[in-house]
Structure formats: C-alpha cells, structure tokens
Amino acid sequence: MPRVLIAESKLEVSSFNPAPSHYEDFVVLRGDEILRHHGTARSEVAGALSVLRQHPDVTVTPTYSARAISSAGTLAAADWQRLAGELLDALRAAPPADAVYFSLHGAMAADGEDDPEGYLLQEARAILGEEIPFIASYDLHGILTDRMLRHCDAFSVFYTYPHVDMFQTGERAARILLRVLGGARPVTARVFVPALVRGDELITATGRIGIPVRAAQEVAQGPTALSAGLFWGNPFTDVAELGTNSFVTTDDDPALAEREALRIADLFWQHHEAMRQELTPLDEAVEIAKRTTEGTTVLVDAADAPSSGAPGDSNAILRALLEGGYAGRALIPIVDEPAVRDAVAAGVGNVVRTRVGGTVDPRFAPLEVEGRVRMLSDGHVTSETSGREARAGATAVLQVGAVTLIVTSHAISLHDRGLFFTHGLDPQRFDAVVVKCPHCEPHMFKEWAAAYVNVDAPGATSADVRSLGHTRCPRPMWPLDEGVEFEPRVQVYRRR
Description:
The protein is of the alpha/beta class. It is built from twelve helices and 23 strands. Helix 2 crosses helix 6 (166-181). The strands form five sheets. A nine-stranded mixed β-sheet has the order 12-22-13-21-14-20-19-16-15. 26% of the residues lie in helices and 26% in strands.
C-alpha cells in the first residue's frame, strides 16, 4: 500500500516592499489539521486529496503546512529558518513513504535565500532519499529554478489568471504522482525567456498570454505527456533566476519535451511586446473620474496590491482625488494601523483627526485627514471567492467628506470584494472605487464599471517594472533593457 506525504509552503513576495514578512504572517497547520482545513476548500491540496482518495490502496499522511495570509515583503531570515526547520522536521518525523506531494508557490524569497522552494526540495531529498518521487504544484507566477528542477520529478502549474484552477492544478499533480508510482519515467525540458510581463494581456481567457498557455494545455493532453505549462514569474521578486520559463514533462520522451517546450517559449516571445500594461497618469485618472457622472469609475492601483506583495499603505490616489477637487463618493482601502488606533480611541460616531498612508512604504507621505468613525470591526473578512476568512486586524471605516476609507491594521489580499462586503459596502453604490489588485474576476468590477482605469501610481508592485529598480535578476531582460534578443536554449532534466 503506497504512502504519500503532503507538505505545503506558500508565500509570494515583492522585493520592493520595505517591510519584511514574518512567521506570524502564516497560517501553520500540522498533521490532520491540514486535512480539515482543505476539506471544503478549492485549493491545490484539496484537489490532490480528491484524486488520491479515489484510490483506497493509497495512504495519505499530511505533515506540515505554512500558508501566508497575504503576499508581502521578503521573509525575514530568522522566520524563514523557523518555517523551513519546522517543515523539514515534520518530514523527518513522518513514517516511511513512497512519494511526496508538495504544494508550493514558486515566488517566495527570504533574506539570505533567493530560492526557498528549491532549498526545501533539496533538503527534503537529503532526508527522504534520491529514489522517492517528488511531485509539486506551483502558481504560474512562480520562478522556475535549476534547483527546483533537479530535485523534483514533475510538477503542475496554474493555467488561469486570475487564478481559478487551483483545485484542478492539485488534481493534475496527484494524477502525475500516481502515474510515476505506476512506473512513468519523467523527463522535463525547460526554456528560459528573458522577459518580465505584466498587464491586461496576461488575463488567460482574453489576453495574448492565453496563446502559449493553451498550447501547453494541448501538449499536456498527449499520450506520453505528463505536464506542460508556462511560468511567467513574478516581476516583483527580484532574484537571480527571475524570468519566464516554458516547460514540458513527458514519460520518457525527451525529444517531444524539447520540441514542445521550445514551441511554447517561441509562442510566448512572438507576443511578448504586447504584454506591457498601458497606464494612465494620476492627474488624468482623476479627470476621467470627474467626467464620469453616470456609474462607477474603477481606479486600479495595482502598484499597491497586497496580493502581489505590496504593503497596501499607498495614499497616492486618495491624495490625487482630494487635491484634484473630486466631489464624488469614493471608496478606498488602505493599511494604516496607527490610524485605526486613533479611530478606536475616538469611537464610533465621533470625529477623528489622524494621518493615513505611508506608514510602511516611504514612497508615500502621510496625509492629514479628519473624518467620522462610521464602523469599527475585528477585521475578520470573508473572501468572496473562497469563503475563507482573512484577518486584517482591527479595522475602521472612516467618512472623510465624500470619501469612505476602509482602514485595516494589516494587509490582506484584495483579489475580490470581500473587504468591502464584510463591512456592508457595495462598490457599485459609489462614484469611484480604488481597487488594489491588478486583475479581479471580470464580474467583480470590470463588467459593470462605467470607466475602468489602470492608474500609473507609484508602489512596490507597479506594472511599470522599469520603475522598480531591479538589481539581482538576469540581464539583459525585457523590458528593463533595450534590444533584448531571445536565443532559445533548452535544458533537459531527468531524475530516474
């Protein structure tokens, strides 16, 4: 009866967020807690479990899970060492196993360790041996590294952005694992592409990125294929192996893997120039909002997206609206723990004078405001997409003239409307709403917005990647450098 271990470690970072991540930013689960947590979820682990449970001869042993509450800054060294140590200790304590499924992100980075996922796989190898198969699942924003490829037999990656196929990605990973246990001999070809991409063309259902992604999906359906996909990396995780990668894994068919990995990479490169986000200057965005008198103007502040690793404390659009004389009703989220404390001290219904923004990121100067405290909450936010709870810490809703501010103590991912709905606020009832996420599912904002504006604001996750100041990623790299050429080169990895 084969035994499969399950381990999880997930965090996406922005190297340009000045505030480090810490151990306390993770939900840590052990043993059967993992099964209960993922029991009703649509996560990668839940998908893998759904497949493995169809095979009564397979015994599943969950070991350790650490999932970050939100994307954030680089993980502090001591906290990384603690997390890594706990996960590896859990593998040491586990009973002998025949395979391991790892649920990973791929864009984690820690102080002193650029490639945490590769490190975990390497050290797990040292503990569990060279023969046991490792299968992993990844976010497509992951950064595919040499160490990840050398120590993992095969893997699956998301096919959708915005992400809606987490469960299916876990299912695919489990099916690969079962095929390897049944005798499949994985061989993986990968092709590195020197490009960092961001923008609307990365929406897989409608954008140019869908062309190579769908090609990979078709390859993965072939009789000798195990997996295929595209990692286009996280341009905000500035590490030594940052870039875009295509990959194809087959059952002992290296020629097919090489040919198709090259084709997928070429399809990506054919369209990469289009994968640059057009941005609207702040002052022009304000004028668009002022001219839009019917319906809601959605102002997308992707440069301060906590789901991409930003701290969430930008007041750039708030300041521009106030200084630009915008008179409409605006709804704006912002992270500012001291402002929340001031609101709590004032109490519901009372007026508070405080400063908002710029408590973490020095790009932003705090803005003096005076407003009425409309609501205080514990910041337990129910996600619109997953139904899970996120914890933003003590939260205050402040009415500053016509502007409604939702001020949280901590950053949480804002990839849906959960923060607004939890506090009784419907974005469609406002004249303008600031959305701190690069892309939400279309029905959440874009399908009903009277105007939808990608704002050129500063921040740790700006779509203008040239503004960020990369120092560690490979060069030349498009669009950081001029005249970048793609010289296709395939690397092949085989473990058995």
